[in-house]
Amino acid sequence: MAPDHPDCPSSASGYPSDCELTQALRQRAMSRTSEGRSYAWRAALPQAAKIKLLLLDVDGVLTDGSITYTHGGDELKSFNTKDGLGIRLLQEAGVEVGIITARLSEAVARRAGDLGLTHVFQKCRDKLVIFEKLLEELQLMPEEVAYMGDDWLDVPLLVRVGFPATVADAVDEVKELARYVSQRPGGRGAVREVCDLILEAKGVHRTLFEKYLHR
C-alpha cells in the first residue's frame, strides 16, 4: 500500500508515486540530526557557526597530495567533485571561500575559475600576509575565518584562525592543532565534510538540501 502523504495525490496502482517517494526521502533527510554525528563534529558546531570565510590549502587538502608530471613537463592534479559542490553550497549560503597555496599550478587556476573563486593566491610563501590582507579587505575578525591545511607550512595560519581544520591523513603535528579533523583524507571529500559542518552549524544545511529535492 502506498505511503500516506497528504501533499501527494493517491496512487491508483497501489505503488508509491514519484511525489510520495520524494516526500519519503525528504522526511528521512529532515529527520537526521547532529546526534548521529561524532563528538568532534558536535563539539565543533559553535565555533563553525561564526565562519564567514573558508581558506583552503591545495596539495593534500583539495587534492590527495600527489603531483604527476606529463612528458611535456605539465603538472596534473585531480580534484574531487564532492568538494566542489560543498564549496558552491558554502558560497550559496553567503560564506566566502579562498585558496592559499605555496605552489603555482595552471590546474589550480582553472579549478578556482570553475568554482567562481575570487580569492586565489598561488606561489605564496607567507600565508599570514595574505590572511591579514583578507581580514582587512573583507572586514573580518580572525575568529570568523576557517583554514584547512595538512602540513607544517600551514601551522602559522592554523594557529591564527578561529576554526583550524585538517584532513584525516595530515601530519600528526597539524592534527594536534586542528579544531576539527575530517574523517576523509585529502582529495577524497575532506573539504566537503568541513563545508557540511559549517552549513549545519549555520542552520542552512537542510534548507539547501530541500532546494535540490525540488529541482
Task: Please explain how this structure is put together.
With 215 residues, this protein is an alpha/beta fold. The chain contains 9 helices and 8 strands. The chain has helices spanning 18-31, 39-48, 81-92, 106-114, 127-138, 155-158, 172-177, 190-201, 205-213, and strands spanning 53-56, 68-69, 75-76, 96-100, 119-121, 145-148, 163-166, 180-181. A hairpin with a 5-residue loop joins strand 2 (68-69) and strand 3. Helix 2 (39-48) packs across helix 8. The longest helix has 14 residues, at 18-31. The radius of gyration is 20 Å and the shape is globular.
Nearest-angstrom radius of gyration?
Answer: 20 Å
Number of strands: 8
What is the element string, with H for helices and E for strands?
A: HHEEEHEHEHEHEHEHH
Query: What is the overall shape?
Result: globular
- Considering DSSP H and I runs of 4 or more, what fraction of the residues is helical? 40-55%
Q: How much beta, percentage-wise?
A: 5-15%
Low-confidence stretches: none
Strand order in the largest sheet: 5-4-1-6-7-8
Span from first to last CA?
A: 27 Å
Mean pLDDT: 88
Tally of individual helices: 9
Oligomer: single chain
The largest sheet is: 6 strands, parallel
Could you say which structural class the secondary elements and strand pairing correspond to?
alpha/beta
